[in-house]
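SEQUENCE-TO-STRUCTURE ENTRY
===========================

Backbone structure tokens: a row of integers, each naming the local backbone shape at its residue.

Task: work out the structure tokens from the sequence, keeping to the layout shown below.
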Amino acid sequence: MADEQDKAAADVPADPTAEELDLEAMGLEDVELTEEEQVALTAASARPVRKGTPEPVGAKGRATPKRRRSTTTDERHRTTPADFVRESVAELKKVVWPTTSQLQQYFVVVLVFVLIMIGIVSVLDLGFGTLLLQIFG
């Protein structure tokens, strides 16, 4: 596993630090760097270097197998109808129910939306019906 990581790391070249960039060899010693390029060079020199990860002591060299679910009778406990009703009532008590004014407002919003959709579908139905009658009729 560590060999695979070393091979993967060997395939990717490391980013050169600001000290390793030889601007004179590139013919760029007299080029004025913009502020963004200077910030980028500073950030590149401040970038942390990855250290080699040593092999942990006592490593087994293979993946840990998945845990199997135990089939004990505690996990397979069935809920009785009385427990179901009791838990349902407890959950319904936790619900934040809308106030009367909120309920009226939601009703009006839904009613307006449905009426608009009825209008759109009716106009489309009338248009397609007329178009088909002109084509085939």
Remarks:
- The chain has a mean pLDDT of 80.
- Residues 40 and 87 are 60 Å apart (CA to CA).
- The helical segments are 2-11, 35-46, 81-94, 100-136.
